[in-house]
Amino acid sequence: MRKKILFVIAMITIVPLSSFAQWRAGVNIGADYNHYSLSTNYQNDVKYNDRWGVTMGLMGQYDVFDWLGVRAELDWTQKNYHRERVILKEQDYRFTNNYLQLPVMASFSFGSQQLRGFCNAGFYVGYWMNSYLKGTDLNSISLIEYNFNQKYSFLKERDQRWDFGYVGGLGVEYRFADNWAAQLEARYYYSVTSTNKSNTMADNRYHSTLALQAGIFYCF
Amino acid sequence: MKTMKYMLGALLLLSALTACRQESDNLYNYAHNDVIITTNAQDKFSEKFKTMWHGLDQNYAIFDYEKQYGVNWDDIYNEYLPLFEDLDRRSIVSDEDLKELLTKAVAPLHDGHMFVQMKNHLTGNYVSVSPSIIRNQTRDDYEIAETYNPDISSYYITDLKEYATASTRFEEFWDNFNNDKNIGMKWLYNKIKEIQSKISITSGSQSEHDAYMLKSYGELYSKLTVLVKSAKTMSPEAAINDYNEIANAYSYLNVPGMYIFDASFAERSMFIAYALTNNNIAYIQLSDFALTPALDSKARQQYAQSSVAAQTMLNQVARVWQQWFDAIQYHHKAGDLKGVIIDLRNNNGGLINDFKYLIGALVSTDVIKVGKSRFKRGTGRYDYSVVMPYELRALTQEHVSVSEPIVVLTNCKSVSMAEMTTSSLKQLPNAKQIGKRTWGGLCAINESETYSLNYAGHVGVMNQTPVYCYVPQMVFMNDNEQILEGVGLEPDIEVDFDEKLYVSTGHDSQFDRAVDYIVNGK
After folding, report:
1. Chain B interface test: which of A41, A93, A197 (most B C-beta within 10 Å)
2. Complete DSSP assignment for B303-368
3. Buried b / exposed e across A207-220, counting CB within 10 Å, b at 16+?
4. Which chain B residues are Cβ-neighbours of A39 within 8 angstroms?
5. Which helix (H) or strand (E) holds A186?
6. Optimal mutation site among B5, B354, B385, interface A, most CBs of chain A within 10 A
7. What is the SS3 assignment for B271?
8. Is the pLDDT of residue A11 over 60?
9. A166-188 residue pLDDT tens
10. Contact A142/B391, CB-based, under 8 Å?
11. B27 and A201: CB-CB below 8 Å?
12. Which chain B residues are within 8 Å of A157, Cβ to Cβ?
């Protein structure tokens, strides 16, 4: 916690000292691959599989120096997963989870004016907006299968809708015009907030999301 | 270079922060008789409580529903664990002490089937608590329901043109065995008297055969007399076991009616009554839902196997149901069926498959809506499936669709399948529920063999593990997704059972009201 505070203070101190100062704004879009970590304990045949999703958003960046900037984004990011039972094909759930995220990162860059590499590192805050479930289940008493495609109902005792975590990414930028730059980035979101609220027994469940995204910046 | 240093520094900082995720606790599967898991609970009350608490935390299907009643399962852990730890510090803990504390801990739970059993390792006895019995015992109509079982036989002379009953229950069998003058105890008594009279006539001389038969009949009569007294306090299984031992040992005496009673009926037995009123109302009463063994050939093999006596009893049940079914078909087609009464008062529930023989025989659709269901999915307290329609299949045999009024009679001892049947009937436009509010036990349960279908239904093994909990694997909802567990179904027309009327005239006020509704439409 102390390290986080020191990092933020350092960033705030550096910004006013620079004479380089350049703003840029842009959009990004990409695909993400989400992994849901939890313990199924003794339910050994229950599997959680990773799933692809979509991510897109708005970007803003303030370049303090030519090698250092501060980036903030407002992204819609999906954190999807698939729950199935290996021995029972009827219990099959595909979760599509939509988050609104605000990553704030330091952006380090290196290379030539036209082609540069960059590394982003920081934290994000997110909000779990909604979810949809699609799949099949079985009423084990009547033995009638049920196909569903519906909205998920939140339960305040169970669902933690606020999300917080760390984010890091590596990418390349190509300045294809005086004021325009295109970026390609591989980014990783590491949540440290369990989606499941624990009670007397800790039952923590986390998202880890790898995003591959492309973006365009307009540099002012 | 400087940039690289900062980048590496930031990435290292991030990787250090990734240790912020917290581990989950390990959970154990308490569903089976796993000695390793239950070893601590063998001789510690606090461990028994923890086993029960964790088992329910992972398996109980309606903790979200319990919230609206202010039940906080974590608070119960914090409040009662110290009290169970106090028991561990005592050298004497009576069964009553244990039962009292266990009752306080689980009484707030609303599931209508659930009971919790805990072994008192200091006395060697098991104590059991059922929250739903505790809750329903406080109802005004509980005692009446306990005292009087539905019985419209007194209407036979004046109001019924047809009446028939059958049973696979040991209590009816035992009642007949003791009271029917042509079989069992009365036959045996008369036989003994006959031989004694014969000896007396011949001035005390007796043949060897007579002496032997008198001695054998006498021995048998004595043993059965002892069983008649003790059976009142025994479980059906124990009474059946003792009776079968005696019947087997004295089978050579060929006492009429003294055949081996199929032990499988201890688990699945029923009483059925059919009547057709003078104005053509087809009435059926079921004490339990156990029609399937009588009406389904595959089930017959499972329940009755090769026992001739069991097959006979099942045939009788099948015949009574068939009379009810045929009466409906005949009178509906003739245009003079007045209505149908399904009497589910004091019905303990039973086999889901029976649904098709009751409601399934009254409607023409392939699948009948019962309500909605939701199952446990996962070890988390609130891990649930989606809410699914709960539908059951109708009777495939050709039958009419009843448009005449249908009344289902219920009382506070209409439980489980009786309530699901009522819930389904109430969705029909021509059906009404008359009587009293039902028990409040609609969540379905399963056998321990099917536990892993939903990873829910049982905690431990009864009479084997230090703790056993009988819990639902699912929650039942009505069509509006309303859970009525611990509450029950309110009747459309509430009618008390008039005890004085019944005792003085044999008239059943609830049955009379059902007939009145069918005849007069209100």
Report:
1. A41
2. HHTT-HHHHHHHHHHHHHHHHHHHHHHHHHHHT---EEEEE-TT---B-GGGHHHHGGGT--SSEE
3. bbbebbbebebebe
4. 24, 26-27
5. strand A180-191
6. B385
7. strand
8. no
9. 999 999 999 999 899 999 999 99
10. yes
11. yes
12. 64, 67, 381-382
- Partners of B7 on chain A (C-beta within 8 Å) are 108, 110, 119, 121
Distances (CA, A) of B270 to A186, B113, B273, B317, B447: 68, 19, 10, 9, 19
3-state secondary structure of A7: helix
Task: Flag whether pLDDT at A4 surpasses 80.
Answer: no
| Residue tagged 């840029």 (tokens) | A24
Inter-chain residue contact B386 with A150, CB threshold 8 Å? yes
State mean pLDDT over B413-421: 95
- Centre a 10 Å sphere on the Cβ of residue B32 and count the other Cβ atoms it contains: 16
| Beta-carbon count within 10 A of B5 CB | 10
Least confident stretch, A23-37, B319-333, B417-431, B452-466:
B452-466
- Top residue of A71, A158, A201, A206 to mutate, by most chain B CBs within 10 Å, is A201
From the list B249, B147, B154, B228, the residue with the least C-alpha distance to B185 is B228
Alpha-carbon gap, residue B10 to A119, rounded angstroms: 9
Phi and psi at residue B153, to the nearest 5°: -60, -25
Quick check: B9 pLDDT over 80? no
Residues B200, B192: Cα–Cα separation, whole Å = 12
Q: What is the pLDDT of residue B14?
A: 64
A53 vs B446 pLDDT, higher one: A53
Query: Which among B386, B393, B445 is the top mutation candidate for probing chain A, defined by the most A β-carbons within 10 Å of its own β-carbon?
Result: B386
Q: Is A141 on the interface with B (CB under 8 A)?
A: yes
pLDDT in tens, B83-135: 999 999 999 999 999 999 999 999 999 999 998 999 999 999 999 999 999 99
**What do you get for the CA distance between the two ends of chain A, in Å?**
35
Cα–Cα distance, B522 to B505 (Å, whole number)? 24
How many Cβ pairs within 8 Å bridge chains A and B? Answer: 140
In which band, very low, low, confident or very high, does the pLDDT at A45 lie, cut at 50, 70 and 90? very high
- Spell out the SS3 assignment of B424-456: HHCCCCCEEEEECCCCCCCCCCCCHHHHHHHCC
State the amino acid at position A189 in one-letter form.
Y
Sequence-distant (6+) residues with CB within 8 A of A163 are: A99, A101, A124, A125, A126, A127, A128, A191, A193, A195, A207
pLDDT band at B198 (very low <50, low <70, confident <90, very high): confident
Q: CB–CB of A140 and B20 under 8 A?
A: no
What phi and psi, each to the nearest 5 degrees, are found at residue B436? -125, 165
User: Cβ separation of B381 and A199 shorter than 8 Å?
Assistant: yes
**Pairwise CB contact (< 8 Å): A110 & B22:** no
The angle subtended at Cα B14 by Cα B12 and Cα B18, nearest 5°, is 115
A121 to chain B, any CB pair closer than 8 A? The answer is: yes
Q: Terminus-to-terminus CA distance in chain B, angstroms?
A: 92
3-class secondary structure for B387-418?
Answer: CEEEEEECCCCCCCCCCCCEEEEECCCCCCHH
Which 3 state secondary structure label does DSSP give B272?
Answer: strand
pLDDT at A6: 60
Task: Please name which of B367, B425, B361 lies closest in space to residue B398, comparing C-alpha atoms.
Answer: B361
Task: Report angle CA B513, B515, B517 to the nearest 5 degrees.
Answer: 70
Distance between A105 CA and the closest CA of chain B, angstroms: 10
CB pair distance less than 8 Å for A144 and B14: no
Q: Which residues pair with B226 in a beta bridge?
A: none
Cβ neighbours of B60 in A, within 8 Å: none
Query: Is it the case that residue A74 has pLDDT exceeding 90?
Result: yes
